[in-house]
Amino acid sequence: MSTLYLELFFKNVHRCALRNSFLCSRGLTEITRRAARLQFSRFSTSSCLTSKKRKMAKVVQTPSKLKEQIYDYFLVLDFEATCEENIKIHPQEIIEFPVVKINARTLQVDSTFHQYVQPRVHKQLTPFCTQLTGIIQDMVDGQPHLEDVLLSLDQWMLDNKLLDPEVKSLFVTCGDWDLKTMLPSQSEYFNLPVPKYFSEWLNIKKAFAEVTSTYPHGMMQMLQLLNIQHQGRHHSGIDDCKNIGNILIELLHRGYVGKPSWKKR
Ligand code: AMP
Ligand code: MG
Fold first, then answer.
1. Active-site residue among 122, 235, 250, 253?
2. Best residue among 78, 117, 235 to mutate for probing ligand 1, ranked by most atoms within 8 Å of CB
């Protein structure tokens, strides 16, 4: 089969699946499953057409084992925070707060919350922090502080019906640092209440270990081992969310059923 034919075939599958995804209910058609994966993960911003076509060909050979999910939505979250090379900053403060909402049925991104946050104590970002995260001083100056961002997030959760009692959503992070360490420590320092929905989450590394029997060091290794193209800039919160989302989708296609790996009492 020629590569041109493959590309045309997948463009059609993708279009068809987009149509189907509005029509089908709980039971997904195979075509929709594959195209959901293609849309989010496989049709990435890769500039290497040859490897892209190779990946498309690989998708044909890998049937999805997507299972019925317990949760309706996965909320992929990845904070960036003030930092300095080899020095522990105290208090460390969140400077980027992204959440990507993935529909557990269609595996599509339904909505995104993304806000840069102004730090209160270490107001000036270090050159190291800017180099690591790509966040420059202008991107945090004049932005809301954490307490206002938490209020905006709450409104976004409300608007997205994520606070409805019948809707089940699960936060997904890479490691436990974001919700076990970063948010609680900053909230304690500034005496801010932590919303109840942050009391459980899925650490994607645990999901990865369950599916592959390998405990990963980090996001880049998971992408590599799953043969997923990295998107955007590593340590940009919003790009990290998209990449973690792609890992999650691949694990779901391999039969993983999303569940919390951590529950606070
Ligand atoms: P990540 O989610 O891996 O992008 O990292 C989240 C945050 O952890 C960053 O915004 C930094 O505050 C901190 N961090 C990550 N890597 C380093 C590093 N090599 N040195 C110091 N801080 C880091
Ligand atoms: Mg990050």
1. 235
2. 235
Is residue 83 in contact with ligand 1, taking CB distance under 6 Å? Answer: yes
With a CB cutoff of 8 Å and minimum separation 6, the contacts of 150 are 192, 195
Closest CA to 73 of 160, 177, 178, 156: 160
Query: Could you tell me which of 202, 201, 184 has the C-alpha nearest to residue 193?
Result: 184
Token code pair at residue 122: 């270490």
pLDDT along the chain (265 residues), means of 10: 40 34 32 43 37 48 90 99 96 99 98 98 98 98 98 98 98 98 98 98 98 98 98 98 98 98 91
Protein residue whose Cα sits closest to atom 14 of ligand 1:
83
Give the pTM. Answer: 0.82
Q: How far is the CA of 236 from the centre of ligand 1 (A)?
A: 10
240 Cβ inside 6 Å of ligand 1: yes
Q: Is 166 a catalytic residue?
A: no
Contact call for residues 39 and 28 (beta carbons, < 8 A): no
- Looking at residue 199, its pLDDT comes to 97
Residue 119 and residue 144 in contact, taking contact as beta carbons nearer than 8 Å: no
CA gap 84, 82 in Å, rounded? 7
- What's phi and psi for 74, nearest 5 deg? -110, 130
